[in-house]
Sequence to fold (34 residues):
Amino acid sequence: MLTLECPYCGVKACETELSPGYEAHLKRFGPGST
Fold:
């Protein structure tokens, strides 16, 4: 699977998380979250 990095905020995510129609309904927590 391809891992992409956002050029603006530096977040790394799998390509399926960034594609429309996949896992957009899941809540994502930022760095430092417990």
